[in-house]
Amino acid sequence: MGAVFAPDIKECFGRADEEVGRRICYNDGYDTERRGQRLNNVQLEREFAQFCKTHQLQSAHAVIGVSGGVDSMVLLQLCHRAMHGSEPLLGGFSVVHVDHGLRPTSADDAQFVASYCSRLGVFCEVVPVEVKDCHGEGIEAAARRVRYEALLARARSYPHGVCLVAHHSRDQLETFVMRWLRGSGLAGLGAMRPAAIREGVPLLRPLLRVRRSEIVQYANMWDVPFREDETNANTRFFRNRVRHELLPLLAALQPAVEARTLDLTEQLQADESFLQEQAERALEQVVVRRSGHDVEISTEAFAGLHLSLQRRVIHILLNCFCARDWLFSHVESIRTLALRQDTASAAVSLPHGLGAWREYGRIYIGHQALPHDHETRGPRSIAQWDLVHVRQLSFASAGVFWRFRALPIAKLPPQPRRSPWRAYVPDVDFVEIVCGLPTSVRVRPLGLAGSKKLQDVFSDSKIPRRLRPGWPIVRVAGRIVWIPGAVRTDVQRWDDTGGGYALFARPSRFQD
Ligand SMILES: Nc1ncnc2c1ncn2[C@@H]1O[C@H](COP(=O)(O)OP(=O)(O)OP(=O)(O)O)[C@@H](O)[C@H]1O
Asked: What is the residue-level pLDDT of the chain in tens, covering all 512 positions?
């Protein structure tokens, strides 16, 4: 469907105004409830006018996202009235309806919005979009992503374009609760901002402090038509369950929950802005070097930061590298890595095949494995591998790129294949990966009566001499359990009761 524009129906709107005006002004005592509503409506219009002035919308072109629901239809009405008052509050405005094509009735919604705009004489564009869940984000999130892309693109096409959406105070409460349940931090719990910049375009929410009941009253007052989205009742969606099941409970316990959450989110937003500003400054102090692929941080400067800043600095870096797919446990693992008192090298693996490494008083985050793939001299700890939180680990050692994987034994098939590239370790939190142990160290290979020197283990397994100093050796509580590609020792065990982990190793250059 293309653009719809019908400037000639403006008069219809004028008549509707007059009718409502007559009912209120001349029928004194006719409908006291309506009079009360009118006061609220005046209040709503005043607040909207104030919002327009604060954000200097007199010189802007507002692109309103209108779904056809009551909230956005009321926003449309407010904009329309704001344009036609004694002093226009908007430089101009137009409507965009995004047709996701996901529901059988979506074409009717588009038609409904377009024809109402046509009645008002407002320019309306219906933008059909294709919703594809490419990032495993879920269909709801994918629809939201493409919707904002379309709305912001339209706003960007105007010289002073801004985008207006009709979120109200209950939406804010829902967002807060959903983020709280999903374990968001400060940034997420601040929920939606009344004014934000999204992809370079101001995204404004003039109704964020308005209650839904006031919006509905306003719609009734001005006979604003709207359509109910039938999926709103479907409790298969998380948001709807929060809305229909959890919020009524919260409101029963604390009737002021919506207003209090609004105040709280405003405070959190202010705290969040302050912390982010401080962290961006701190980042300049701790980052020693930054290239497109990795970043190098001074552990000394990092240790001097306040705990909140330490976390936020890592948070910012992870956002750059891991596109928000990280967890709080990743932040904490990197922080622990940076604050360790000993000087040993260590690593944690991150999503998207990235890693964080510690070497010589620096933390490296990025795609590179060990930053200095140097020859190993003497024993060296490669990683304290946190099996509970980190399931994959990769690093380079003496010219070989290693990938390690850990799988709880309970998840393995009943009779796993035997291989020197796999071993079983007891149910421990950490294993240590070291290299460069003296070749005279003795190990007791599984199934052998006696012990063997490391040197003999390497030669029997045909591990090239030049690779031996950097060859990883896995230890549990200081005892060797596995030399990948060579032997497993009597410390390792296959636990039929399902405890422990299976470890897998793949050296990329050597094995090929
Ligand atoms: N199909 C649509 N076309 C244009 N604008 C829309 C559409 N759907 C929603 N909007 C705009 O977005 C606002 C929020 O809508 P809704 O609460 O349904 O979004 P949501 O899916 O919860 O996403 P979020 O709240 O994260 O923006 C609406 O008030 C309206 O302004």
From this structure: 333 333 333 333 333 333 333 232 223 334 555 556 666 678 899 999 999 999 999 999 999 999 999 999 999 999 999 998 788 899 999 999 999 988 888 889 999 999 999 999 999 999 999 888 766 677 888 899 999 999 999 999 999 999 999 999 999 999 999 999 988 889 899 999 999 999 899 999 999 999 999 999 999 989 999 998 777 777 777 888 999 999 999 999 999 999 999 999 999 999 999 999 999 999 999 998 776 567 889 999 999 999 999 999 999 988 877 666 778 888 998 999 899 877 666 777 777 667 788 877 788 887 654 444 444 456 777 788 888 877 878 777 776 778 888 888 877 776 667 788 988 888 888 888 888 888 888 888 887 778 889 999 999 999 988 888 889 999 888 888 899 999 888 665 655 556 788 899 988 754 33
- Is any atom of ligand 1 closer than 6 Å to the C-beta of 66? yes
Give the domain extent around 329. 291-361
Q: How far is CA 53 from CA 13, 86, 512, in A?
A: 25, 14, 67
Q: Are 320 and 421 in the same domain?
A: no
Q: What is the CATH number of the domain that holds 10?
A: 3.40.50.620
C-alpha span between 153 and 485 (Å, rounded): 55
Residue 366, domain member (yes or no): no
- Which of 301, 334, 361 delimits the end of a domain? 361
* Residue 68 marked ligand-binding: yes
Q: Point out the domain boundary residue: 335, 361, 387.
A: 361
Instruction: Give the whole-angstrom CA distance, residue 211 versus residue 409.
Output: 53
Most informative mutation of 64, 67, 78 for ligand 1 (most atoms within 8 A of CB): 67
In a domain, 479, yes or no: yes
The whole-model pTM stands at: 0.66
Tell the residue nearest (CA) to atom 27 of ligand 1.
144
With respect to residue 105, please indicate whether it lies within any of the assigned structural domains.
yes
Q: How far is the CA of 68 from the centre of ligand 1 (A)?
A: 10
Residue 314 inside a domain? The answer is: yes
Is the CB of residue 144 below 6 angstroms from any atom belonging to ligand 1? yes
Asked whether residue 347 falls in the same domain as residue 431, the answer is: no
The predicted complex's ipTM stands at 0.94
Nearest CA to ligand 1 atom 5: 65
- Nearest Cα neighbor of 126 from 114, 139, 143, 141 is 114
Give the CA diameter of the chain. Answer: 106
Which residues, 6+ apart, have CB-to-CB distance to 69 below 8 Å? 166, 226, 227, 228, 229
| 320 and 414 share one domain | no
* Length of the chain, in residues: 512
Residues 241 and 171 in one domain: yes
Tell me how far the alpha carbon of residue 331 lies from the centroid of ligand 1, in angstroms: 32
Q: Are residues 313 and 236 in the same domain?
A: no
Smallest CA-to-CA distance from 204 within 46, 38, 81, 50 is with 50
The residue whose two tokens read 């109910």 is: 228
The total number of structural domains in the chain stands at 3
